[in-house]
Specification:
Helices cover about 0% and strands about 25% of the residues. It is built from one helix and nine strands. Strands 1, 3, 5, 6, 7 and 9 form a six-stranded mixed β-sheet that branches.
Length: about 190
């Protein structure tokens, strides 16, 4: 299963597999993908902007350019008829994921998978299916510290992303850094 990762978090980034905003910094993709120097700070516009579900599907502002969605500046791979693949996995396999935080807002992470069947398909909220850890939990509770965190999530059986299709992995960070906002959801 070939996979393109499209999401990042405020004050952090998905390192493994590399997300669309980060992948341009890796030497093997030099010149193929633009570099996003703010790849650690996507926040879908912030808490005030995201209330009521108003956020870009891939961490961009709801009302702004969708730079990280398919067709955006950091995700033009399918339109060029060449896919920049961050990682490949077998259907039903367990993925080793790695997230780097530069500012820990506590809370938890969730991951979702969206299969796009053609080069022209776009990510939608309904497309993303929640992934689970080997223990069956969907939420990965965030311990204290600003560091690199390792976790495992399972891919569904029977999902194959090859040919003109591709899969998109989304990292969703639910932060608890605002005491006046109960269990604030920030979609990154």
């Amino acid at each position: 299963m070939a996979m393109m990762v499209q999401d990042a978090s405020a004050h952090g980034r998905l390192l493994v597999p590399p997300h669309r905003g980060y992948i341009g910094k890796l030497p093997q993709f030099n010149g193929l993908v633009p570099i996003n120097f703010g790849d650690h700070g996507l926040s879908a516009g912030g808490i005030g902007q995201t209330r009521g579900g108003k956020h870009g599907i891939c961490g961009d502002r709801y009302s702004g350019k969708r730079l990280h969605e398919t067709g955006g500046e950091f995700a033009k791979f399918p339109q060029l008829r060449e896919k920049v693949i961050g990682a490949c996995y077998a259907p039903g396999s367990t993925m080793d994921l790695q997230v780097q935080l530069t500012a820990n807002h506590m809370g938890y992470f969730e991951f979702g998978l969206c299969k796009l069947n053609s080069l022209n398909d776009k990510e939608t909220e309904d497309c993303f299916k929640t992934l689970v850890q080997p223990n069956g939990e969907k939420d990965w509770k965030l311990p204290a510290g600003n560091k690199v965190f390792n976790m495992q999530y399972m891919l569904p059986d029977g999902v194959s992303c090859d040919g003109d299709s591709h899969c998109v992995l989304r990292w969703h960070y639910v932060g608890w850094n605002n005491p006046d906002v109960e269990s604030t959801t920030i979609n990154y």
